[in-house]
Design brief:
This protein is an alpha/beta fold. It has helices at 2-16, 35-45, 63-76, 95-101, 116-124, 137-142, 163-179, 183-186, 210-218, 221-228, 234-243, 254-260, 262-278, 287-301; strands at residues 22-25, 50-53, 80-81, 104-107, 128-131, 145-146, 149-151, 155-156, 203-204, 251-252. The protein is globular, with a radius of gyration of 21 Å.
Amino acid sequence: AKTKILALRRTLAGVLGDAGPLWVVPTRMLRRKNLAEAILLTRWLRPEAWLVTTAGVSSQDERSYARRLEGAARRGAWKVRFGILHGRGHSLATIDEVVAAAEVLLFTSLQEGFGLPFVEAAAAGKPLIARRLPRVIPDMEALGLKFPQLYEEILIPKNLFDWSGEEKRQRTLWRNWKATLPASCRRKGAGIRVCDQGAEIPVPFSRLTLTAQLEVLARPVEESWSASLSLNPHLRRWRIRAAAEGLTPSVWSAVAEARMGEAAFVRRFQAAARHAARIPQKNLVSATVARSLQADFITRRLATECLYPILMGDA
């Protein structure tokens, strides 16, 4: 109900400190969520907005990443709040209610298995700014979901961070990470792409270490925006539309309802259960095929396009 959404917005304004627009990343604090990119996009496109994540840290492995982001946000007085619902249970709101109160959703993940926030954004009819994940978006579009604000990468000129230091960090990071792989896998990795580029070539923000990402974020917003605009011309249009609260909503089409609505779920679940009961309980894949599938999977995952410094450790 609109009255409940307005009431929640007033409550959130009290928690955050002002009634600025709410941009939401419906996620936990995870490296693969690439949250620094969500911060950058929010500050560029809607400087007066609050960027919030719904959940906090839930893994010991992510605590260092989270502390560094939180510390940078605090020192820079950025309008960012991590884990708006963390530790509150449902005393403040549910995730669905926060999504309903949001002006825009963001999803800047580097990798996803299925990509539930895409479905959530379409079901809620909310504008979504998201990376066009090559292993996710084709499935989403086949299911009848439409997302007008997708992007491939956010390109950054190398004068916005210490390129020399970043190159050394990435080479060290790659060498140390590769040493942790099983010996049979070490020769498959081709390396991190950014280490092989000259200083004059812009780099995707996603391919930087967290240290370099934070260096970019530490720059004045208008400086990094002006330096990067020619590399990302579509963002000018999004910024104008965001200021007018006119970003295009995601679409849950009739096709999506037919394939993912409640009735469709029940029908397909029952069909799958009946089918599973008829499958003979024996090995369906030979050992040779299994090894081939495993080797192919490892080769694909160690390809350069799948390697991101922030997933390899602290740097």
